[in-house]
């Protein structure tokens, strides 16, 4: 098994499948009255969050607690970090406290990789800058599998601000590993250079959402920040919504079985219309539920829960 | 500095460099006295002279660096004029041009004279200060260029390096103004709006790593504008650290039109590529296969800020184009952009790290690795031409009777594995740690006095 989970590229098909299968076991557990497993009793998991992200932090916290781990939440605000402590010194502190795993969310791409140089425990990337968010990709794959029965062979459209999206990068890597076909859709200004080859060969790019929808099994809408228009990535929120937002008429162009995903938090009326977000195709709430099961599986497998 | 030679050859000390291979010739003896080479020939009389055995060594004119950050005044924890001078001497340099982005900025006669005086006191290389183009490097109004030119430091190169003189009108004025004292503007070519927040070369690797890209066009657009401005006003332009294949083409075009433009390339842009940011060192061209080991392979977890530099490491295709341009002469000189940084400025998240890498102590080895033993080409690109651009008349001259004895002796057969802990620089941010590179500097002479002997600094 892996030591760290830093990138979707760390996962081969067998490992990813093992995680998804294990997550299925964890999900069954969640249906029981007592939701706790003793697997990680006596182990310490630190949530090291340099960015506010209530949903991801709570998801990891719930996952670790259901495995009976001791959880320490370390947020940058109001901590030694706001007093200017370096990542290295924070790492040495956590190391000295005997952290078995550090779940890190950080605004700088690559910070989890840098952290991994300084601590003996496992490092889980919970989102680094505009780079990756591998557990999000795992929970997305889990959601596709549970809704559509498989991942291999699916056509997945990832729509929106791919340039700044860590969700998109991890999904492109993992979905390619699992045999899905990914098409990235957005205005050219928000599609990163050389994306067709940078992550996984065979990744396709389209600037035309309407052309992609009729053959998509999955449409994954990415959050688009309104501030991006200040940097001229697009002229206005209205124009963005018209060209790349998923509204009711567009949703009806999808095949009957197709699902609509969103990693959250959503901008209703911007990239996704309320009608779509609240429709039966939407998996948005399931994704949150599945997130806990997938993160339980990752913590369990990374921390050697299997061997105990 | 050195004693007068007037009145004959009774000047001490005298050195006899025995059996050195000079560029374009065979082994010969060089007699050095009174700061100059007094005799060149075989079987010279060693009486009264300290003999330096140079059997198997190559004698180059002392190397000249047009682009060195010595960090003093302001960041003496990263480098001082003295420690940087020692690093330079150990790298075979006899003259370095000290960049202006110190704290305070070298934008007045007072600061450039301070740096110049510190260089003389250290006495290990000739330190030629570069003056800032604009006050505080702010890009708003001209610094007192004439006062710096007229000062004891006799500044001739002006640069806001680290920042681009982005305002086209200000750049035009600067190019024009320095004509009065045969000055040259050395431009850090980086369109600032195209590189806001940039972290590495924009391309496949930046996309994979999720780091904001520094597009090649941000360099090329400024060089294109500046060669047109230089042509328009008939001034000299020097382009710092050229890094892209497209910049080479712009320069080729400008030179064909007769524009008075020169350009430099750094050793790291010739040898390393952006893949190393992702943790993969790749081989560039056939030259590396031979003398250099530790070439290809995996390097750590990626995002190692020791590889963060501005302009950023580019692609293998760019590095190959830069090498060809250097050989062809489209690129005139190799300059190190030696940029020492304190450990805490590199031991952190990639985005928060300062850009820059050490260069003085490894430059010649990297060039031997890239070009092979093309000694005349190395002398031209690392000594003669940079000396001419900087107006350093005592430097860049091959050993001959009467020529100032600024020399370096290289052992081409030696191999060394780069160890950051052994650097004379106060900083440790070499990108070549663990690589085995060809060549070793055995001795360096500055104005007839050794600054390095047996591979060690004399002080």
3D architecture notes:
- The complex is a heterodimer of chains A (308) and B (459).
- In chain A, helix 1 packs across helix 12, helix 2 crosses helix 12 (284-302) and helix 5 crosses helix 6 (166-177).
- Chain A has helices at residues 13-30, 54-66, 87-96, 111-116, 134-148, 166-177, 195-198, 209-212, 237-244, 248-251, 274-277, 284-302, and strands at 44-49, 70-75, 101-106, 122-128, 155-159, 181-185, 204-206, 218-221, 259-261.
- Chain A has 12 helices and 9 strands.
- In chain A, 38% of the residues lie in helices and 15% in strands.
- Chain A has 308 residues and is an alpha/beta fold.
- The longest helix of chain A is centred in the last third of the chain and has 19 residues, at 284-302.
- In chain A, helix 4 (111-116) links the parallel strand 3 and strand 4.
- Chain A has 2 domains: 8-131 and 288-303, Aspartate/ornithine carbamoyltransferase (Rossmann fold); 134-283, Aspartate/ornithine carbamoyltransferase (Rossmann fold, 3-Layer(aba) Sandwich), CATH 3.40.50.1370.
- Chain B has 459 residues and is of the alpha/beta class.
- Chain B has a single domain (63-396), classed as Alpha-Beta Barrel (TIM Barrel).
- Helix content of chain B is 26%, strand content 22%.
- Chain B has 11 helices and 21 strands.
- Chain B has helices at 81-90, 109-122, 145-150, 168-177, 204-209, 216-233, 245-256, 267-271, 316-328, 363-371, 375-390; strands at residues 14-22, 27-33, 36-41, 49-53, 58-61, 63-68, 93-98, 126-129, 157-158, 184-187, 200-201, 213-214, 237-239, 261-265, 280-281, 297-298, 333-334, 407-417, 436-446, 449-453, 456-457.
- In chain B, strands 1, 2, 3, 4, 5, 18, 19, 20 and 21 form a 9-stranded mixed beta sheet that branches. Chain B has a 5-stranded parallel beta sheet with strand order 9-10-13-14-17.
- In chain B, helix 6 (216-233) runs parallel beside helix 7.
- Mean pLDDT of chain B is 94; it is low at 1-9 and 286-291.
- Chain A binds chain B through residues 6, 86-88, 106-111, 113-114, 116-117, 128-132, 166, 169, 192-195, 197-199, and chain B through 199, 202-213, 300-303, 344, 347-352.
- Chain A: L-aspartate binds at residues 83, 166, 223.
- Chain A: Residues 153-302 form the Aspartate/ornithine carbamoyltransferase Asp/Orn-binding domain.
- Chain A: Belongs to the aspartate/ornithine carbamoyltransferase superfamily. ATCase family.
């Amino acid at each position: 098994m892996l030591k760290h989970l830093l990138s979707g590229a760390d996962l081969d098909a067998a490992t990813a499948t093992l995680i998804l299968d294990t997550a299925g076991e964890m999900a069954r557990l969640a249906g029981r009255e007592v939701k706790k497993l003793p697997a990680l009793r006596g182990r310490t998991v630190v949530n090291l969050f340099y960015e506010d992200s209530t949903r991801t932090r709570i998801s990891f916290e719930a996952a670790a607690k259901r495995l009976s781990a001791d959880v320490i939440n370390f947020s940058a605000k109001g901590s030694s970090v706001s007093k200017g402590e370096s990542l290295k010194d924070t790492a040495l502190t956590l190391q000295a406290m005997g952290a078995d795993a550090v779940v890190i969310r950080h605004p700088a791409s690559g910070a989890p990789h840098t952290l991994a140089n300084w601590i003996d425990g496992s490092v889980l990337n919970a989102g680094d800058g505009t780079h990756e968010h591998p557990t999000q990709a795992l929970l997305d794959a889990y959601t596709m599998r549970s809704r559509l029965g498989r991942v291999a062979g699916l056509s997945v459209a990832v729509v929106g601000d791919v340039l700044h999206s860590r969700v998109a990068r991890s999904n492109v890597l993992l979905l390619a590993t699992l045999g899905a076909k990914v098409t990235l859709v957005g205005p050219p200004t928000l599609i990163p250079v050389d994306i067709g080859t940078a992550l996984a060969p065979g990744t396709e790019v389209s600037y035309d959402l309407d052309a992609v929808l009729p053959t998509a099994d999955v449409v994954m809408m990415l959050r688009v920040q309104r501030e991006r228009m200040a940097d001229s990535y697009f002229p206005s929120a209205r124009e963005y919504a018209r060209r790349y937002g998923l509204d009711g008429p567009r949703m009806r162009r999808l095949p009957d079985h197709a699902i609509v995903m969103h990693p959250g938090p959503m901008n209703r009326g911007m990239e996704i219309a309320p009608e779509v977000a609240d429709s039966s195709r939407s998996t948005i709430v399931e994704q949150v539920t599945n997130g806990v099961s997938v993160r339980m599986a990752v913590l369990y497998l990374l921390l050697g829960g299997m061997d105990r | 500095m050195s004693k007068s030679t007037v009145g004959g050859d009774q000047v001490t000390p005298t050195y006899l460099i025995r059996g050195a291979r000079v560029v374009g010739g065979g082994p010969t003896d060089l007699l050095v006295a009174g700061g100059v080479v007094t005799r060149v020939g075989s079987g010279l009389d060693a009486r009264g002279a300290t003999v330096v055995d140079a059997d198997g060594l190559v004698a180059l004119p002392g190397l000249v660096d047009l682009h060195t950050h010595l960090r003093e005044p302001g960041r003496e924890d990263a480098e001082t004029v003295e420690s940087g001078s020692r690093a330079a001497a150990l790298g075979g340099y006899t003259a370095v041009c000290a960049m202006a982005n110190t704290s305070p900025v070298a934008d007045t006669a007072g600061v450039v004279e301070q740096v110049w005086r510190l260089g003389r006191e250290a006495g290990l290389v000739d330190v030629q200060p570069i003056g800032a183009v604009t006050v505080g490097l702010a890009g708003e109004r001209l610094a007192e260029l004439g006062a710096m030119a007229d000062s004891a430091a006799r500044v001739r190169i002006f640069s806001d390096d680290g920042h681009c003189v982005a305002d086209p009108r200000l750049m035009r004025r600067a190019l024009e103004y320095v004509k009065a004292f045969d000055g040259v503007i050395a431009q850090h070519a980086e369109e600032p709006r195209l590189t806001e927040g940039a972290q590495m070369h924009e391309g496949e690797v930046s996309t994979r790593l999720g780091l904001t890209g520094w597009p090649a066009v941000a360099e090329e657009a400024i060089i294109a504008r500046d060669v047109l401005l230089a042509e328009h006003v008939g001034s000299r332009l020097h382009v710092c650290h050229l890094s892209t294949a497209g910049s080479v083409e712009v320069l080729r075009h400008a030179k064909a039109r007769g524009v008075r433009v020169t350009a430099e390339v750094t050793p790291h842009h010739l040898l390393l590529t952006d893949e190393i940011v992702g943790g993969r060192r790749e081989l560039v061209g056939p030259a590396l296969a031979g003398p250099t080991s530790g070439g290809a392979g995996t390097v750590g977890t990626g995002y190692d800020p020791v590889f963060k530099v501005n302009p950023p490491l580019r692609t293998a295709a760019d590095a190959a184009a830069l090498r060809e341009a250097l050989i062809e002469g489209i690129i005139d000189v190799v300059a190190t952009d030696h940029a020492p940084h304190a450990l805490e400025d590199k031991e952190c998240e990639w985005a928060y790290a300062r850009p820059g890498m050490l260069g003085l102590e490894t430059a010649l080895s990297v060039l031997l690795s890239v070009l092979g033993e093309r000694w005349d080409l190395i002398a031209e690109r690392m000594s003669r031409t940079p000396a001419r651009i900087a107006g350093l008349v005592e430097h860049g001259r091959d050993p001959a009777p009467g020529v100032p004895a600024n020399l370096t002796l290289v052992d081409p057969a030696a191999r060394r594995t780069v160890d950051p802990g052994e650097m004379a620089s106060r900083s440790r941010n070499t990108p070549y740690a663990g690589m085995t590179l060809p060549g070793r500097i055995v001795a360096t002479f500055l104005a007839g006095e050794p600054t390095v002997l047996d591979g060690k600094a004399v002080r």
